[in-house]
Amino acid sequence: MAVGDVSMPQMHAVKGVKIGSAEAYVRYQNRRDLVVFEFAKGSNVAGVFTQNAFCAAPVHISKAHLKITNPRYLVINTGNANAGTGKTGMANAEATCAKLAELADVSASEVLPFSTGVIGEQLPIERLVNGLQPALESLNENAWLEAATGIMTTDTTPKGASEQFEIDGVRYTMTGISKGAGMIRPNMATMLSYVATDAPISRELVQQLLNETVNVSFNRITVDGDTSTNDSCIFVATGQAGGAEITSPEDVRYSKVLEVLTRVMKRLAQLIVRDGEGATKFITVAVEGGENTQECCDIAYSIAHSPLVKTAIFASDPNWGRILAAIGYAGVPNLDVEKIQVWLDDVQICKDGGAAEDYTEEAGARVMAQTEMTIRVDLGRGQAKDTVYTCDLSYDYVKINADYRS
Amino acid sequence: MAVGDVSMPQMHAVKGVKIGSAEAYVRYQNRRDLVVFEFAKGSNVAGVFTQNAFCAAPVHISKAHLKITNPRYLVINTGNANAGTGKTGMANAEATCAKLAELADVSASEVLPFSTGVIGEQLPIERLVNGLQPALESLNENAWLEAATGIMTTDTTPKGASEQFEIDGVRYTMTGISKGAGMIRPNMATMLSYVATDAPISRELVQQLLNETVNVSFNRITVDGDTSTNDSCIFVATGQAGGAEITSPEDVRYSKVLEVLTRVMKRLAQLIVRDGEGATKFITVAVEGGENTQECCDIAYSIAHSPLVKTAIFASDPNWGRILAAIGYAGVPNLDVEKIQVWLDDVQICKDGGAAEDYTEEAGARVMAQTEMTIRVDLGRGQAKDTVYTCDLSYDYVKINADYRS
């Protein structure tokens, strides 16, 4: 059960983006497990990918293709990650691109492949390529929900965000989807996420917008601290809604797009945490008063990764000593604990490094019992701040991951 | 239930070490929760302590006292960690030393205090100091088992190691105890461990021996990755069995002591993992072929901390892709995955970065079903190696930590 409101909004079509899907029986039966995106000619595409050294074959190929073209197609399969699969895995990912290119009459380098699922098994490549033609035949503008559903693995709910905004009298759309529930600690990207707008933006700025927003969204979430081999996030601007191309970050229109994209990306990232494997609570860890952003981020992740903090929150137990311990072992040099304040929502639990005098177990337990809460830490040594989103650690996390594959 | 053989050996008395205990009702009822060590005059004492910035009041004071004296007494309470307790916590730890010093007619700086248990609550100092006199009255040489039992918290079994060895016709003893089951990822020390020998060793070398052996024992284990606020490890050489003092690491007797101490420390450290909260499997992660020890250690810990690897092992599921992913996100620069080999005991699961051709699920499952196994990784880029010990992640880990304090 996902935490809080994870409902799909109205998924507005993005001019210049068509989506098709098919049942390819990669692993799952009776569901669309193959998704194809088609972008109108002239679209600008940017991507960020996992920094896991064991990155999957499709990640290698997507990165290489992005360097030499502005891709026209994405092809995504679920059920098999095509990671740890050696040369055969590379050949299979290349064969997928080649077949789709042939059917769609583009070059293979204009296709980006993506895979998610079990690591270390070879793709059933024949079944996969047989699904490409039916997927292409189903291409249409109003299939974002089908795409969000098609890319799910252990997710319990499809994940989407969609907004419309106006610049100079033109109405633009920003729509995106994401997937992921376990092996979630993105490093420069996430499990899988695709966001598109029909606003006109230069390719350089599409990448810049993606980098800026990934760093406050997908790069600030964790479920279990395990960075996936397949994390990929794609942002595309088709320009099909019209208007002059945005080519400078000084352009006021850039700020407007950045604002909308930040909101969409944060929502998509937080949806992954809300649907984290076994999650029963959604937790915001906000660290402020640091000398620099990195140390705020380190401490926030130290708290967000601590199995002891996460099990205490699962149990609604305000065992705040575990939060202090996690702050203390984050590895931040010269930390003066006597300057540290910690709050659970509005309840101060730690004042100047020790228990706050007016703190009561009842007040702490009241916040801990909520399904959403903020752990706020003030380091008292500077102006920097950072925020990380995570969930608790429950019996069901163990159950899901002890049972997966079986 | 602890994993494998965790039985207490015959705990040989160490000449010059006496141990007393008492029921002080710090938190637990009807058990000895206060332990006092007395060392003969002339003993040389060394210690290593947690690097957690939120280190406990007794850690602050033990470190300060060790700098100015060769301590004669240790006093240890369980049930309350006296961490995150501010100035009152410091005053309570100092009062404990002062009272014991008065009763034993030594200076307060010759007493080292230790606490373990819940973080963030004040010690019931009156009950604690009232237990000191009965503890002193019970001092005797044959109470190592009582001490090992007295310092337990969530441990399910007392932990001890004891050996006798001969140098130049003199028989010496090396005996030690440890405790800890959760919040285990020692950084320069462990939860609590006390090791003593009656061999004559200079103070400088006592510290050197401790540093050398901690780095292959307590600094190479993890249960949940949470570094405690109270980790402390003490090694004392009383010299009471006779012989000329060992004053140089070139002395052949130094090598003999190092060999015995390494074995004792590794056993005490591994006992903590075998009794890790919820543990059902004991796992050795051995990484070789690295450019340097640090990268071997980083990869070993990355595997040992991965909740996905740990839940797969709990389920006896040879889902080895999770091991590859953990190697890949360890942050080791320029890792060439095509040179990487991985084995589960004698079964090669990954060859040159992909699935080993003759690997079968049956072979992997056979090893995964064992209660003890070694995950061996060869990075194929150098001669360095390192080894880390850990356990699996089970329902009971969540249960224990969601229920603790309740």
From TrEMBL, chains A, B:
It catalyses: N(2)-acetyl-L-ornithine + L-glutamate = N-acetyl-L-glutamate + L-ornithine; L-glutamate + acetyl-CoA = N-acetyl-L-glutamate + CoA + H(+). Pathway: Amino-acid biosynthesis; L-arginine biosynthesis; N(2)-acetyl-L-ornithine from L-glutamate: step 1/4; Amino-acid biosynthesis; L-arginine biosynthesis; L-ornithine and N-acetyl-L-glutamate from L-glutamate and N(2)-acetyl-L-ornithine (cyclic): step 1/1. The record marks A189, T190 as: Cleavage. Keywords: Acyltransferase, Amino-acid biosynthesis, Arginine biosynthesis, Autocatalytic cleavage, Cytoplasm, Multifunctional enzyme, Transferase. It is an enzyme of class 2 (transferase). Pfam families: ArgJ (PF01960). It comes from the Bacteria. Gene3D superfamilies: ArgJ beta chain, C-terminal domain, L-amino peptidase D-ALA esterase/amidase. Substrate binds at T153, K179, T190, E277, N401, S406. It is found in: Cytoplasm. The active site is at T190. Its EC number is 2.3.1.35, 2.3.1.1. The record marks T116, G117 as: Involved in the stabilization of negative charge on the oxyanion by the formation of the oxyanion hole. PANTHER family: ARGININE BIOSYNTHESIS BIFUNCTIONAL PROTEIN ARGJ (PTHR23100), ARGININE BIOSYNTHESIS BIFUNCTIONAL PROTEIN ARGJ, MITOCHONDRIAL (PTHR23100:SF0). HAMAP family: ArgJ. Belongs to the ArgJ family. Heterotetramer of two alpha and two beta chains. Catalyzes two activities which are involved in the cyclic version of arginine biosynthesis: the synthesis of N-acetylglutamate from glutamate and acetyl-CoA as the acetyl donor, and of ornithine by transacetylation between N(2)-acetylornithine and glutamate. This is Arginine biosynthesis bifunctional protein ArgJ. The gene is argJ.
